[in-house]
Each structure stands twice: as C-alpha cells, then as structure tokens.
Design goal:
Radius of gyration of chain A: 14 Å
Low-confidence stretches of chain A: none
Structural class of chain A: mainly alpha
Helix content of chain A: over 70%
Number of helices of chain B: 5
Largest interface: A-B, 28 and 35 residues
Strand content of chain B: 5-15%
Number of strands of chain A: 0
Strand content of chain A: under 5%
Mean pLDDT of chain A: 96
Largest sheet of chain A: none
Number of domains of chain B: 1
Distance between the termini of chain A: 16 Å
Shape of chain B: globular
Distance between the termini of chain B: 16 Å
Oligomer: heterodimer
Order of helices and strands of chain B: HHEEEHHH
Largest sheet of chain B: 3 strands, antiparallel
Chain lengths: 121, 152
Amino acid sequence: MTPENHRAKAERIEQSLTKLGDADWEMRIEAAMLAGTHWVNFILHSTGASTVSEDMVHASMTLVSVLRKYSLAEPELIAQLEEIEELRPLFVRGDMDGGAQAAHRALALLAAIGRRARLLA
Amino acid sequence: MKITSHAEKIDRLLRLRQRLDPLQDFELWYWSGLTAGTNIWNAALHAAGLTNEDRAFSTIPGVHVVPQSDGSWRRELRGPGDVSHVGWPAIAGDMPEPLQRLEAALHALEEHRDPCLRADRTPTAVIVQECNRALAQAIAVYQSLVHAENQP
C-alpha cells in the first residue's frame, strides 16, 4: 500500500477510536495494533526502509532478518509496536485482569507512533 | 479459555459493534465482529468437546500464553485449545454439521479482513451486508450449541 493509503487507514481507525470507552479494551488494543501497523508502514515506506510492496502485518509475524532491518531503521517505533502486540494474547484473546489499563497503555503507544509518523507527513 | 469468558467478550464486542457505523467506522466495526466470531468459534469448539477450555491464550498455532499462579505468564507449546482465527490451525476430527456451518460463516467473514483492513478495497454496503449475514449465521449456531447458562 502507498504511504498515503496507510495514513488514511490509520486516521480512520483513530477517528473511530473516539467512540470507544474503558469497557472496550479489546478493541482499543486491536485498534492500536491496526492503526499502529499502518503508521509503521507509512514511516518505513516514507523513509525508504521498506517498499510499498513490503507491508508489515504484525511485527511478531515478520521474518526475523527483515524485522532486524526495520529495528535498525526505527528501533523505538518497532519496540512500541511490539509492546502493543504483546498485549493481545493477554487481554484480547485472554481474560487477564487489567484490560482497561492495558488499553490505556496501548493508546499511549499508538499516540507515540502517530507523533513520529506525523513528523514525516 | 473458559466458555464463560468467551461469552462475556462476545456480549461486549457485539454491543460495541452496534454503536459503530458500519461504513464510517468500518475497520473497528468489522474487527469487533471478527473478534466476536473467533470467540464464538472457540466457545463452540469447547462446548462440542473438540478443544479444551484451559486458561491458555492463543498466539500462533501450537503456542499459548499461560497465566502463572504468581500473576506472571509464560509461553508454552500446547495441544488443541483456543485458536486465534478460524482455520488457524484447522481442527482435527469429525466436525458436526452445525460446526461446519459455523466454520463456513466465519471463513466468509474472514475473507474481507485483509482486502479491506490491510489493502485498498473500499468497504461497501454489499460488504457490510455480507459481514452481517455471516455473523448472524455464526451467532445462530453459537446460541444453539452453547448452553444458555454460559451466556451473559
């Protein structure tokens, strides 16, 4: 996908996020993953670290050697996306206590990713 | 994960889905239905005795995140339990007809995931209708297979 389309998807998801509350922690975390991944692709494409034909779907599913490359290019960004992804088995697919707090952390991480992206936009 | 935990998530996710606009909020509207659908799949498989209800949370096939007694968690290699998506992994053994119907409905729902969420396909009213139809079929099977006492 082009950087512009990644940005448009991320911004649509961020807009929908305003309709969610503390009881919607699964979708807040998933939204952070979805929008965060679009922003990461936007940044990697914009900086030339990846091409428009090399979209990342999940950091955890990315070829190790490729993820290493992205981490060299954008270490903080990739660490933030990985932290969001680590919340998913526990609070989205699992029933650990503290889902609302985990979602707040996911949104903070998404905000940080979005700030980095908007510097390039 | 326990059927009751799946049921609690299904209930909240479906109520959230109703608050979202299917086209304006398509990504999260779709994803809440998809996530409810996966919980329906797991709850139905547990109820049918095809997978276990262990409190082990799915990641990739064969790897689960398991809470520990001290509040921490660890990854473990485990057998059939919760799955992260229908078909991932496929469930071994003979599948009763209602579960086959549920599986087909969830696959129909999943077909819109990558094109609409991770590629350039623009959601349409037709896609919304297809998603609604697939999820309605899934909910109908869930309500017939999972005992009412397990549902909120």
